[in-house]
Structure formats: structure tokens, C-alpha cells
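Look over both lines:
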Amino acid sequence: MAYTKQNCWEYMNCGRGPRGAKTKQLGVCPAARERRLDRVHGGINSGRACWVVAGTFCGGTVQGSFARKQVACKRCDFFNKVLNEEGESTESNNSMLKRLRDTSSRLDITTKRLGIIIGSSGLIGGALMHYFNDKTTGDIEVLGPNSKRLSLRQPKDIKSYFLKYRPDFIVNCAIAPLDSDAQLAFETNYLGAVRLAKMAMQQKIPYIHFSSSATQPMGENLTEEDLQPLSPKLSNYAKSKLLTEKTLQYMHETQGLDYSILRLAVVYGKHDHKIQGFQRLLFSIADQSMPFMLTKPGVRHSYSNTKKVPLFVNHMLENRDEFSGQTYNFADKEPVEMVALIKAIKTYLDVKAPREIYIPYPLAKTGQNFLKWLKKLLRRLGVEIRLPAEMQFMKSFYETQTISMEKLEKSSYRDPDAEETVFTELTSIIYYYLIRWKHLNRITTFSEEVQNSSQPAGEFLESPETLLDTVNQYTHKPLQDHEAGL
């Protein structure tokens, strides 16, 4: 039988090792998290070099730095056990401390877990970054590399980045644009996701992956097991997402991948820099570019609240035994009728369009084909235009798709804001996006008048020379005085 070297948490039976019995109450021991000493003396992370790691919980109390705890450690049975087992191969304390001081390979996370969020500039990724950096208790640190730093299409980028930082978990919410060609969707949504999964397996850490209800058929109360057949007829987006779900499940069953999938429906929330999905509907009504109803009464869809996503991700990370290898639909409990949502937006904006004339799907499809033909014609003339990516899912505007929340409700997760829906959030969302789109000059049917010409925005618009003189006066003052003066 092969000899297996013990780590400190196994020898001491403290319950603070990875997935230990006491981690919920006391947290994971820094020696079990600190990866810069991984494999030293044949241990996991710093499991056989714990005496040089600050903040370990030994003898019933939290220990300080190596300089303060070394006397106590020399009396420790486990310390002497490692020395006897390693003999002349024991790595010197100075050598190990030098590794711990090397921040180029890892952030200082002897007291924190480190996560990597792929797609951090998007709506979901941005919400996760904000939550883990500002809303949690401070025991987690996250990095959000952009595509120039880490491209999912470049295996070398992934390998070098993760070997450098050695995170404790990976969250992937990156996607190629909905209207991407087959190559981009395949490389980003599928191959990139699988490469991240392989890296998670190599480093033995959890992998949280975001998928979409585009992988599911039309219908009502769809469960997690209800999937479209894998077919060439699927859109590039749906096909790549479905392939990923199936591959991650296979890697879990055959290779032990610790993964979880969140399958989102129509996503709504603030701080999205792109006009897509729910924002596309809102924009079309606000800009009065949808003259008639491109749907029919009774068509309903499920909606996912961006604000709630980070809470569930955090809960899954803290409860891996329950959520590992699982897929969960994640949306508001009650689905939304598309006609009712359009009318609510119209009422708030006090606009006439879209008028309550329902365009049948065959006629809408004909109009869509005409626009595609016109696009090709204009391209030949040197005019480049892009149709909304959501148009490829136009059929879903006329068919109901609602996803079941039963599995999520039976889990240990509890929604702290179960009563929030797209309707309760509608006022603040509309206000946020209208102001943003006005400032970016994307809405032409609304005009925003400057309320106070004495404010910088008013001076910027009406008298830039005066504004320049005002700002120049305050550049000689400290920053707080500068801001107060403006």
C-alpha cells in the first residue's frame, strides 16, 4: 500500500482543513489555503510547512508570525514528525519564508481566499466583482482579468495566469456576442470554458460556470434536465452553451471536476454597458423604434435578477458538498408576460408606441428576412450596419419559456429578497438607463435640459471658456477643495 504523507489538519484533526467539519464556524486554516508552499515536503498547499504560515490556529489560539510562533512550533508533535520523515530533504525556513514574500506568484491571501472572475466587465461579472470586493466580510479577494490579459482563446494565457495566481475558485461568466460567428462562439463559449475546467481540475478548485436557458426548449416549468437536442440547427450561442454543459457533466462524472452551473433566463439589472436582452426591449420603447407589438398576448418568460446572482454564487462556494456537480436554474419564481412588461414600460415613459397591434410571427419573420437582405445590399454599397443580435431569437418572442425553480427552492439557499421582480425594480432600472443613454446621445426622442446652468454641465454646454477659467483656479488647491469648488 502506498504511503501517504499527512497534512497538519489531518494529523491534528482540527476540522479546519479543506471541507473540514469546523470550517463554517472557524473558517479554513491559512495553512490549508496558502498555495505558495504547495507540495513542499509532499503536502497539500502548506499542510506540511504550517509553522512558517502566519495566523494558523494551533493550541486553541490563533498564532502570529513565524518569528513569534517558532518556539511553540518546535515543541509540536507534527512539526517533529515532518522533520523526522523528511530528514535531510527538509526545506529551510528561510527558503520557505522567501516564497511567502514573493507576491508575483500570489496575492497575500494567507487570510483570504482568491477567486478569478472571467468576464468581469459584463453585467453578471461586474455584479460579482462588486459583491466580493465591497459586500462580503472581506475573507475573499477576486481578480477580473480583461481579455488582453487572459484570452479564453489562448491556452497559454490561461495556463500562465492561473499558475501565477493559483486561485481558490474560478467563476466563468464570459460569453462571445450573441451574433458571433461559429468560430468565435466555439472558441470562447465552448473551448474556453473547457480549458478553464481543466485548469480547475489541475488545481483542485471549484469551477462555477454560467449558462443560459437558450439551451432549453420552449415550454412551461422546464426543469434542469429539460434540454434541446444537440443539433446543427441551433444558434451558435445556444449550441456552444449546450456543448459546454454536456462536457462539464462528463468531466465531473469521469474525472472528478468540481463544477456548478447556473442557468440564467432573461437577465435584468443596472450597470450594463451593452444594449442587449432586457435593455434592448427597454431601449426600443424609449427610442420609439418599435411601432407595433412583436409578440402576442399570453407569451411568458422567466427573468433573472442580476443583484441576486452573487449571493447564490457565494452560497455555492461555501457549500460545495451540496452543489458540486449540479446545475441550477436561477430566476425569479414568477414568470413575466411580455405584453404586460411592455405596457408597464410604456406607462412609465408615457409613450404611445408600440401600439397594441400584434404582428403575427410569419409577418415578423418576413420583415426580419427583408432587413437581412437590406443589410447585405448596403454592405455592397460600403455601408455597414448591424441588426440587433436578439433578432436571431425572434421566435421566442412568440413562444412561452418558463423555467422551474423547484430544485433551487429545495436547496439550502434562501433568497433574501424573494419578493423582488422585474416589475418592482422597473422604476430604478428605467431611470438608470434613460439617464445613461441620454448622456451618450443614444436616445433621440427624449431631450434632457440642463436644470442649472451654473453647474459644470451647464457651463460645459453653454460657456466652456468660463468653465475653463473656473477649473484652472482650483487646480492650485488640494483635491478636496477642488471638488468642493466644482
Remarks:
- The mean pLDDT is 81.
- The radius of gyration is 27 Å.
- Residues 456-485 form one domain.
- The chain has three domains: 8-101, 113-439, 456-485.
